[in-house]
Amino acid sequence: MASSLKHWTWVNTDLQTSDDEWRRRLGRMREAGIDAILPEIFNNHTAAYASHHLPVAGRWLEQLLPLAAEAGIEVHAWMHTMTCTIPAIVDQHPDWYAVNGCGESAADKPAYVGYYKFLCPSRPEVRAFLQQRVAELAAYPGLASVHLDYIRLPDVILASALQPNYGIVQDREYPPYDYCYCSSCRAAYQEVGGPDPATEADPAADPAWRQFRCDLVTRLVTEGLSPVIRAAGKQVTAAVFPNWQHVRQEWSRWGLDAALPMLYHSFYHEGIDWVRAECARGVAALGPATPLYSGLFVPALTPDELVAAVRASLEGGAQGVSLFASGSLSDEHWRAFARVNRELGKLS
Ligand SMILES: [Zn+2]
């Protein structure tokens, strides 16, 4: 186990920190057993790298790549994919955005939160827009992978512990949260012999329509984005949901180089046993070709619970964990993480 064990951490955008402070942080990560960082280089409105087509907030990826190489840590470019709140895109291309079962566009009436402006996965213009971004990123020498996050549709059913935040009860799929019913998606479904989903009395009861939308997201990854990334010699990784049906995200079929399911137990009123079970379920779905790394939600874990969650993930068949997020770990968390890695034989 020790030789194949690999640990990751997501790192939220941070454009202010000096090279010396990054050296210190990366050194501490390495000493605790982190092998790979996932810096957030596109949130949903600005790029933290020298993009030629997106608004640029800073050149953070360029700063981190040599520092991480010095520390012996891989860099994976974490990008939000389908959410896009760039004002110029919203204003000039409202037709690129996903539409819910009530006919409302995410461009001007997003579900749940203001940033839930999801693009539509069936639009050729959206595919081309996203291909530009992954091509720019994949061209960076020294980058290990392009890491796709928000590669999905909005949650038709939110994680149970999050529903009260919005004062809603989602005991089934309801039209205001169900996407995408844009003219492009509806026409594409009819081309393969389906009815117009907008005229169905209960489209949630049409399993073929649900699968069709999973397939739209799958094809965006397998035909649209992965070939561009791999042509530049880079890997394709993704942050994905355990309740994948609720976000139309059938990630076990994407042919990823690594899958990082976000097993944020507290969002689902679950405990660490659930993390173990979800790892096992994911590993079984992926098959042996794709390693799974268990995404752990650090704010809901004490240092001792973090140790237990690492062990549970490995018992479930994960080849390591990915910590969300690096800024959430206290000194005690880092010490506990190093301790379990020594016990596992990963660190001497
Ligand atoms: Zn659509």
Account of the protein in words:
- By secondary structure, this protein is α/β, with parallel strands linked by helices.
- It has a single domain (8-343), classed as TIM Barrel (Alpha-Beta Barrel), CATH 3.20.20.80.
- Helix content is 35%, strand content 12%.
- Helix 1 (19-32) packs parallel to helix 9.
- The two termini are 14 Å apart.
- Zinc ion binds at residues 98, 120, 122, 180, 182, 184-185.
Key features of this structure:
about 350 residues; globular; alpha/beta; single chain; TIM Barrel; eight-stranded parallel beta sheet; binds zinc ion
Summarize the structure.
With 348 residues, this protein is an alpha/beta fold. It is built from nine helices and eight strands.
